[in-house]
Fold:
Amino acid sequence: MNTQHWINHFEANTRLNRELQLPDTAGDLPENVRTALARSIAIFQLGESGGGTRLRRYTRSIASLENLRGYQRAVDLFVAEEQSHAALLARTVSHLRGTLLQKQWTNSIFRGMRNLVNLEFNIQVLLTAELIAEVYFGLLSLRCSDLVVQTVAKKLLRDEMGHLSFQRDFLFERLKTFTPAMQRLWRWQFQAIHFATACVVSWDHRDCLHSLNITPADFRARAVRCWQSFQSRLDRRLHEDESQARHEAASTPGYNRSSSATMQSPVS
Structure:
């Protein structure tokens, strides 16, 4: 994993977020749209405001792995960028004359889920939220007429796309050590959890979605397409890595092609 690339990326991007100038304009959204947006964005702001304590603790356990050298530093900077997102969203909520939240039920569920198993699952739950955020901020940037909301949504959309690449790099390093059967099992549970999350979010943010002329069903469909795009890219990398490993093995002196074929699973 090219952790130095991500260290440089997060350092530069966090600085850009802190220096981002928002349009100096008063909001003129209809009252029902303003209140729905303010509440919805406040929920996302709460989700971005965590300190990453558990994630950092998990990363320390793999910090010595050669292929993940520098990952702990990259995660520290990733968390800092998430906190810069929280600051931008807080400014947006203030612009909409909304109220920041200290606690919210869906956020509590996501935080609890991240602590259930191990680092991979923690990253997966975080990744699920980022896939949902890609859809959410994409819709805000396209459907909301408020210039401040548009500016923040476009910036966060670009950042979330970077986060997805960062998480995909990490998951590739971990999943390539899994057997094909374990990779399929992981893929199935990831898909199930992502879809369940999309259902919960589309219901919890239904007022905001309706104010943007988006139905919850349309939001879920967009979320599914984002998951499919992410997963297909991850699957492609895993397949290419497996093919390369087989090619290198076949080029090794003493490699027995017939015995290798005999040992392969008929479903792999």
Residues 3-17+30-104+114-240 form a domain with the Ferritin fold (CATH 1.20.1260.10). The chain has one domain: 3-17+30-104+114-240. Residues 258-268 have pLDDT under 50 and may be disordered. The longest helix spans residues 216-250.
